[in-house]
Amino acid sequence: MNLKNKLKNLPTSPGVYLMKDVKHKVIYVGKAKHLKNRVKSYFQKKADNRLYTEYLVRRVADIDFVLTETEKEALILENNLIKQFKPKFNINLRDDKTFISIKLEVNKKFPYPKVVRQIDDDGAMYFGPYASARAVRETLRYIHDTIPIRKCPDNVFKTRVKPCLYYQIHKCLGPCCGLVDEITYEGLLDQVILILKGKQEDLIGILKQQMREESKALRYEKAAKIRDRIRAIEETVEKQRIHSMTFVDRDVFGYYIARDEVYLEVMFIRSGNMEDVASYHFPTNHTTIEEVFRSFLNQFYSQTRFIPSEVIIPVESADARLLEEWLTEKKGKRVEVIHPQRGDKMRLIEMAQKNAENAYQVSRTHDENFTRTLKTLKESLMLRHVPERIECFDISNIFGKQAVGSMVTFELGKPDKSKYKRFKIKTVGQIDDYAMMYEVLTRRYKRAVEEGDLPNLLMVDGGKGQLGVALKVFEDLAIGNVDLIALAKGRNQGDTLGEKIGEQIFKPHMSDPIVLASSSPELLFLDKVRDEAHRFAVTYHRKLRDKEYYRSPLDEISGIGIARKRKLMRCFGSIEGIRNATLEQLMEIGKIPSRQANEIFHYFHRPETVTTQTSNCHV
């Protein structure tokens, strides 16, 4: 059915529409309460007065529909399809800011604050979100310095037989060894919760009362400890606070439009405190700011994250009511989406708007500075091109084993992780870094030549030897329009007391290396690229090495997965403990079904297994 006929036979129910170009590629996904009215509006003159409508419609060759029962189902499906197809004309939120929360399992015995990235419906309390690990570390450090709560993880807590150093320095009350009762510990938890909710003033009042009671009872040492805790809290209670009439949890959004990009800022306010901020920016694609926010908010809250009581936005949203209903259902409590016109909430919007503008200014300054850095790098290294796209390679192995190669890509000075590649060495079995580099470069650039996907600059970690390998690959593949360098680490000249030589940059057909000033932005940038390639290679190498190292006889028994292996090791302490266990102990202590317990017992008591040395086995 052609497009004209489809427009004549549009359904009237709620659903999602997928606009496609002549190559049948999805270029836009939208949702509608009434599909017929919504889709037809695109093809009417001056439809919705949206700037991008005409620009979009000229590229539409076909439209598909997915019908839903309700508009809310259409909203959820729209988000999923945007993630799946990544349409050109949609705001596509690729949120790599995996927000961190602090989890307190108040439904368990002697809990402690954990750092998590997933919020589950498990009865625990969650606090956050925090956009940076630094903010979480500072919060937890403050809690651990102030409240003598447990600090060790579950696996250590369950096996500890004597108090740790924290107990000795009065930073923990020793719940692992039964040195504190649950009621007293719950009192500490209440204090932690007050801090995480930003209610330090309430906590100070409680602690002052406790201090007076201890003093009256002549327990002066305990009173002094509480006094010190009060002072520590009072020193931080003056931290930045957004004063408001109430202490509700809020997400406040602001924006700033610059040319064809929009910068969005989110301020996370929890119990009146500014906990953290996050910045995003997108190309506008000729889209109105109302449409940007509609799509952004829907995608933003479709991910697993903390949902506040109020979502404060700077523009009217056509989906405000629908978003309220959806978020209320997800949170289990009333959520309001508010577009304020005056008052305290409007001032919060203004603050978010200023932060969005500042994010743009910082980004522009960085881009301008980095453009100069890349141009200077071209001149300093006598390159043919400004190195707007750099690919850097590194090799990682231990005595030739588990050898891997890595490639990282930097576009305009920023890492593009979607183009990172890693290689498991296939053709080299001995210690030969040159042969390994030759294999990796050949595999990468043979395909790059076929696809026309070459960088401006190729950089290898090493000296003249690695450079020679790269040059040989380029000659074999007839690559002649890509700049090539090798970056060698600094070293001492002569004996150990000799003069330190800085980083050296080698180029083809040049006998002497180029040495840049150690503090120059150009060299610091190249170091950053090389270090990222090294990190990526080492991470992959460790993954393969650990996979080989952590093998266990239990892997050879069918039906024994990772969870059951861990459970057995926790119950019996080691492979030797499992070997020495009776059939009844495997079933009772290890909680293993009789069939699997029989398999484990008979495996370890076969003649060939009994004589096997297991002292080096790991799980």
TrEMBL record:
Location of the GIY-YIG domain: 12-91
Q: Which domain of life is it from?
A: Bacteria
Q: Which Pfam families match?
A: GIY-YIG, UVR, UvrC_RNaseH, UvrC_RNaseH_dom
Compartments where found: Cytoplasm
Q: Using the record's annotation, list all stretches that form the UvrC family homology region profile domain.
A: 252-474
Q: Give start and end of each UVR domain.
A: 201-236
Question: Which keywords does this chain's UniProt record carry?
Answer: Cytoplasm, DNA damage, DNA excision, DNA repair, Excision nuclease, SOS response
Q: Which PROSITE patterns match?
A: GIY_YIG, UVR, UVRC
Task: Outline the subunit composition.
Answer: Interacts with UvrB in an incision complex.
Q: What does this protein do?
A: The UvrABC repair system catalyzes the recognition and processing of DNA lesions. UvrC both incises the 5' and 3' sides of the lesion. The N-terminal half is responsible for the 3' incision and the C-terminal half is responsible for the 5' incision.
State the family it belongs to: Belongs to the UvrC family.
Listed name of the protein:
UvrABC system protein C
Organism whose genome encodes this protein: Candidatus Brocadia sinica JPN1
Q: Which gene encodes it?
A: uvrC
